[in-house]
Amino acid sequence: MKTPSSTDLAWLGEHAAAHLPAQVRLRADGPLTGTIGSEIDRLRSLAPGVPGSLTLLDLPQARASTLDDAPFEELAAAGEEAYALRSRGDGSDRGDDSAGDASSARLEVIGGGARGLLYGFYAVVLGLAPAPSGAWTIHSPGNSIRMLDHWDNMIVHPAMGQVERGYAGGSLFYEDGELREDLTRVEHYSRLLASVGINRVAINNVNVHAREATLLTERLGSVVRLAEIFRAQGIAVFLSVSFASPITLGGLATSDPLDEGVQAWWRRVADAVYAAIPDFGGFVVKADSEGQPGPFAYGRDHADGANLLARALAPHGGEVFWRAFVYDHRQDWRDRSTDRARAAYDHFAPLDRRFDDNVIVQVKHGPLDFQTREAVSPVIGAMPTTRLAVELQVTQEYTGQQKHVCYLAPWWSENLRFPSGEDDAPTMAQIAAGSAERPGGMVAVSNVGDDEFWTGHPLAQSNLFALGRLAWDWTADADSILDEWISATFGVDQAVRSTLRELLAESWLLYESYTAPLGVGFMVRPGHHYGPDVDGYEYTPWGTYHFADRDGIGVDRTVATGTGYAGLYPEPWASVYESVDTCPDELLLFFHHVPYTQRLHSGKTVIQHIYDSRADGYERVLQLRPRWQQLAGLVPGPLHERVTTLLIEQERSAGEWRDQLRTYFHRASGIADETGRPIY
Ligand code: GCW
To answer: Rounded to whole angstroms, how far apart are CA atoms 159 and 402?
Structure first.
């Protein structure tokens, strides 16, 4: 087997190319001579010698062609990111594993615009869009915002490394404080993103340090170069900016959003950025959060702050992604009335109607912080007139740090499908998607670095892929997405497919089973957040407590006796969560402080559940490696070795979680494990 290159080891590698008919017939001239057009040309070179043909046309070309039965009006209405697809000839379905003899198959793709054509092309390459023979199907994204945020630093940060919460090596973009000379991998990466429909990317950490702040001004040239690469894939580039920039970069005495000098400074800076990058996306801002500067210093609120930047960008069509992750990270652990889970709601819900049209409030999917399990953020249903984006974390900060196998699509799906109220209330995804007039969508923190497998754990590529697919269509099924990723990456060998399914499909629930129980969250080692440390955050200022003592555990967030957080939801959820009887088991300790002897709906007591699931989870982890071993020789050797090494670490770590949690809660409760399994 040849030594795989990093491109081979992601889904646009050799297996994807195998889907492509050979005599690809490109007619991508005319209005498509832009950079996307040349990109389509480049992609054609991936096609091996399979007979058949592929016609790619944009809408004006298609109208002028012989395809007079194409759904022109519908496609035009679906927008420039949409595409129409039809197969003709042998009746095979390009999305089907058993595509069979494609000798006479012919695929026709019409793009609503250049990006639609590119997406249609990738869908064919990756087998993502079944094309029933004879009939046209139209595919269009369910979200207009499909964005990835990079938490990359130009300089390696002493505590956080080069990529904050990055588990895949250094930054793809920067090296030694500057943009890399060789950006070939950024080109590959931009293709990976476009192939699953990503259309926006932010290229630096939301914690904006001194050097990275200068991307906005003296290092704008680096942004220009990255924007050129991403442009070819229809992806707009965004910068994370510091709210204090007028002071730190501009030498002003203030960054007060109501100060005219500050407003003029931001306008001048935005004008300069757009002079260099006419299709620049805009800014991402983390303000008044974990030490980042913000409008509170001047007695202003977050609408004042966001609108300041929005008004500088508006003349150029730019957007501000303003994060709602605002809470008191210096709280006194003795203070039981402050609840971090409430913070984003308390700060932002009252500001609905105050944000300018080009502000998108970016809300983490849960009220705490990307935990393995937590409730859905009540902010999303509380700002009906504000453009919103749900923020997900592809990088596995709290979900195994790309050392543990953890396929997150089922967890994201569960959040996206969450109905905001009774009966046919819209789901969280529908609310975020917004309307044609006020579009929103999804933003996620990337899990990619300069690692040869892109994501450290090669199987963590599935999360990046799934994120794009769910941003395109939140109703897509997590298992089907997994299958798509497996075929695109590893081909259609049945043994490979079934093993990967077994390893990945329920890996999130497996991870949950041996880590913090029943929605209580955290219990991780402070700082790096890897591995168990039950009391690690208990007496810290971060607002992340479990309140376990000899009698019970959990956070009382009820209206009746707790922080009142449960009351921030509309019905039925306010009532469902308020009562121990109706609260779902998996969120019991998120909403309630209960005795260890509390019985779950599963019939087990809380303490026995903690004992059992930690021990059973560990046993299941032990089954992963022998299963993976069966793929030796069926997947590239270096990839097989990397996964094997990581599975050994997952076993070690899961054992540590099991033993620390079982022992801790035995010591706390004094209640025996009825199975008699070892406790230390
Ligand atoms: O989960 C926390 C992380 C921080 C991160 C922060 C955020 C970029 O531990 O490292 O900072 O979230 O989302 O801003």
So the answer is: 19
The H-assigned helical ranges of 352-477 are 409-416, 428-433, 461-472
Torsion over CA of 239, 244, 246 and 248, rounded to 10 degrees?
-100
Per-residue pLDDT, 99: 40
| Coil, helix or strand at residue 401 | coil
pLDDT tens digits along 480-498: 999 999 998 998 899 999 9
Q: How far is the CA of 451 from the centre of ligand 1 (A)?
A: 21
* Parallel, antiparallel or unpaired: strands 319-323 and 282-285: parallel
In sequence order, the 6+-apart residues with CB closer than 8 A to the CB of 647 are 405, 624, 625, 628
Tokens at 465, concatenated: 């892929």
* β partners of residue 202: 149, 238
Catalytic annotation, pick one of 29, 290, 422, 549: 290
Taking the CA of residue 286 as reference, the ligand 1 atom at the shortest distance is: 14
What is the Cα–Cα distance from 159 to 414, expressed in whole angstroms? 33
Which of 397, 450, 586, 612 is labelled catalytic? 397
- Listing DSSP states for 256-307 in one string gives -TT-HHHHHHHHHHHHHHHHH-TT--EEEE--SSTT---GGGGT--HHHHHH
Token representation of residue 278: 């006419």
Pocket test for ligand 1, best of 364, 397, 443 (most atoms within 8 A of CB): 397
Q: What DSSP state is assigned to residue 133?
A: B
Ordered alpha helix ranges (H), 277-400: 302-313, 340-348
pLDDT of residue 19: 60
Q: Kindly list the distances between the CA atom of residue 369 and the CA atoms of 211, 340, 494, in Å, as whole numbers in the listed order.
A: 27, 10, 38
Task: State the pTM of this model.
Answer: 0.95
Which atom of ligand 1 is the closest one to the Cα of 398? 1
Examine the residue annotation and report whether 369 is marked as an active-site residue of this protein: yes
Using the atom order of ligand 1, give the atom closest to the CA of residue 391. Answer: 13
Atom of ligand 1 nearest to the CA of 151: 8
Residue 65 binned pLDDT confidence (cut-offs 50, 70, 90) = confident
Instruction: Identify each DSSP E strand in 20-79 by its residue range.
Output: 23-26, 53-58
Count of helix runs (H) and strand runs (E) in the chain: 23, 19
Tell me the CA–centroid distance for residue 290 and ligand 1, in Å: 8
Which of 113-127, 213-227, 412-426, 544-558 is predicted least confidently? 113-127
**Considering only CA atoms, which of 355, 406, 398, 356 is closest in space to residue 374?**
398
The band of 20, judged by pLDDT with boundaries at 50, 70 and 90, is low
- Whether 346 sits among the annotated catalytic residues: the reply is no
| 502 counts as catalytic | no
Distance 157 CA to ligand 1 centre (A): 14
The Å distance, Cα 403 to ligand 1 centre, comes to 19
Task: Indicate whether residue 286 lines ligand 1 (CB < 6 A).
Answer: yes
Per-residue pLDDT, 159: 92
Beta bridge partner(s), residue 239? 283
Nearest-CA residue for ligand 1 atom 13 is: 325
- pLDDT score at 49: 38
pLDDT band at 476 (very low <50, low <70, confident <90, very high): very high
Helices (H), 127-219: 184-195, 210-213
The long-range contacts involving 191-194, CB below 8 angstroms and separated by at least 24 positions, are 191/12, 191/39, 191/43, 191/233, 192/10, 192/11, 192/12, 192/454, 192/464, 193/148, 193/233, 193/235, 193/468, 194/118, 194/119, 194/122, 194/233, 194/234, 194/235
Q: Does residue 151 line the site of ligand 1, with CB under 6 A?
A: yes
The 3-state DSSP class for residue 627 equals helix
The single residue of 58, 152, 369, 483 carrying the catalytic annotation is 369
Q: Is the pLDDT of residue 25 over 80?
A: no
Q: Whose CA is nearest to atom 11 of ligand 1?
A: 207
Could you tell me the pLDDT band of residue 132, with boundaries at 50, 70 and 90? confident
Distances (CA, A) of 244 to 131, 253, 291, 335: 51, 10, 12, 30
Task: Tell me, using a 6 A CB cutoff, whether residue 365 lines ligand 1.
Answer: no
